[in-house]
Write a structure and sequence with these properties.
This protein is mostly loops. About 5% of the residues lie in helices and about 0% in strands. The protein contains 1 helix and no strands. It has one helix at about 5-15.
């Protein structure tokens, strides 16, 4: 798997728009427009993706563990089977994103917008969802042990078959 620099990434984006399967770990990509980009199976571990536009991007099977994703826009993104363990997603926009079967253990989702997001069968143990907006989000079968959702708004969210052991949904 080829490791790319920020310069090479911008060159590829302007020519092909394809970044699938590349090693982008540890790279500062903040504030780039990566909307509709194919990042399937890419390694972004520990990268700075703060305030990046990833709307409608394909991040299926991507490794986003330990990334700074604060303020990033994931509207309508495909994030199925992604590893987002211990990432900072505070203030992120995930409206309508598909995070099904993903790993979000220990992730920071404070003040994030997860409205209409699909989190079916997602691992969210020890995640911080304080004051998050998750109206009509699907948490069906999600493992949410010890989630802190203090002050979160989850109107019409679906928690059927979810494991909520030790979770805090206090208003």
């Amino acid at each position: 798997m080829e490791k790319l620099s920020r310069k090479k990434i911008t060159e590829l984006l302007s020519s092909t728009g394809e970044l699938s399967g590349f090693d982008l770990s540890g790279i500062d990509l903040r504030e780039l427009d990566l909307s509709r980009v194919n990042l399937k199976s890419s390694i972004l571990k520990g990268s700075n993706l703060s305030y990046v536009n990833l709307s409608k991007s394909d991040l299926e099977d991507a490794d986003l563990s330990g990334c700074d994703l604060s303020g990033a826009n994931f509207t309508g993104a495909n994030m199925r089977h992604a590893d987002i363990t211990k990432a900072d997603m505070g203030f992120s926009i995930l409206i309508g994103a598909d995070l099904s079967n993903s790993k979000l253990t220990g992730v920071n989702l404070k003040l994030a917008n997860l409205s209409a997001a699909n989190l079916e069968n997602t691992e969210l143990g020890n995640a911080d969802l304080q004051q998050a907006e998750a109206a009509a989000a699907r948490f069906t079968g999600a493992r949410m042990k010890r989630v802190n959702a203090y002050g979160a708004s989850m109107i019409a969210a679906d928690f059927s078959k979810a494991d909520l052991e030790g979770a805090d949904f206090t208003k």
